[in-house]
Amino acid sequence: MLYHLYEFKKAAQWPAHVWSKATGIFLKHLPFKDEFFGRLLLASNEILERSTRSFGRPEFGIDTKTKAGQGVEILEKTIIDKPFCKIKQFIRFSTDGQIIGADEPNVLIVAPLSGHYTTLLRDTVDAMIADHNVYITDWQDASRVPLSEGRFDLQTYIDYLLDVIVRLGNGLHILAVCQSTVPVLAAVSILAKQKNSAQPASMILMGGPIDTRINPGVVCKFAKEHDLDWFRRNLVTDVPFGHLGYGRLVCPGFIMLSGFMSMNIDRHQEAQYNLFVNLVKNDIESADKQRAFYNEYRSVMDVPAEYYLDCIHHVFHDHSLPRGIMQWGGGLVDPALITKTALMTVEGERDDISNVGQTYAAHDLCSGIPQTRKRSYVQSEAGHYGIFNGKRWRTEIQPRIAVFIREFSGKD
């Protein structure tokens, strides 16, 4: 029923959206459009247009990169295609069409499956491309996956990772962001237990809920205060007719977006006001930055219900991984068995989603990794989004990750 109400709301808003688009075209041709009153009308109309817009799936749009003063062309290519996830590779070409970087470290970025499209990590990818061969998990909108493709739960997620890691081969480095840190740590633990030769050279866990019993924040407390049935009743619905995934149970992206925004509603309201003010002031550079952020932030997708509920159960209720009771394939998942994969954790001082200490908990769980192969870093002043996007990510965090990857490339 939730999804049907949302579709009705979109349909009801459509006339207002079309009207505001047409009005915007008209206003831009007025002779006084560059004067204060004209900018005021245009700004007011844009706020209306954006409030009634449905934000679709964004593109990465990374097609060029500069390295050592030379232009590099980037080709985005799907190399593994699964129903719920595509693995994309960013291939670099020199100006004369030659593939470059063959001897540089291979890095798989595992994006969170938490409502936003993988393009939320565009800045993460863009910063890593210069000196690494980058791959990324491009999760698919569950509303577009036919019911015939079956369920997708935490076990399926781990299975996907195991298959991808093995197919990408030895010497791989894995960078996991937010919620993906839990299945990544589980997958690497399983490979260590199997003594698989494809065990990654290193894993970087960033802002993830490895042990939510540590320093619990708003998200952890909310999850603990509600049982699994509450989440099932209130946040899970079926995909309506007209979508490829008709009949599939999902946690809709629009619900998850509401949850994200409600955590900092005053900040988001202030941001919208600031966008309006910047448009009136004709501060185009600031307005463009705000537009770009919210175009991405408001682009959301549906998450398979089985996976969403599994995360609540294993991460926030049972704490299965840190308590040593998580299972896969009939056996326990034990991070202590990891010995060959180097470990780095990254946290944000002001992270209000995965609070400081929750990711660092991986160091205690991975007791088999020598201290000489472990690193940790807490970025001052950074919130959750800031550890993988923006100035601090580019100038403080990513350079440290690059050094860590180089240090453990090619080592046993």
What does the main sheet amount to? Answer: 9 strands, mixed
Number of strands: 14
N-to-C span: 53 Å
Strand order of the largest sheet: 1-2-3-5-4-6-7-13-14
Can you give the helix content as a percent range?
A: 40-55%
Structural class: alpha/beta
Q: List the uncertain runs.
A: none
| Rg from alpha-carbon coordinates | 22 Å
> Which overall shape is indicated by the principal axes computed on the Cα atoms?
globular
Mean pLDDT: 92
- Helix/strand order, N-terminal first: HHEEEEHEHEHEHHEEHHHEHHEEEHEH
Beta-sheet strand percentage? 15-25%
Oligomer: single chain
Specify the number of helices: 14
Descriptive account of the structure:
By secondary structure, this protein is an alpha/beta fold. Helices cover 42% and strands 17% of the residues. The protein is globular, with a radius of gyration of 22 Å. The N and C termini lie far apart (53 Å). The mean pLDDT is 92.
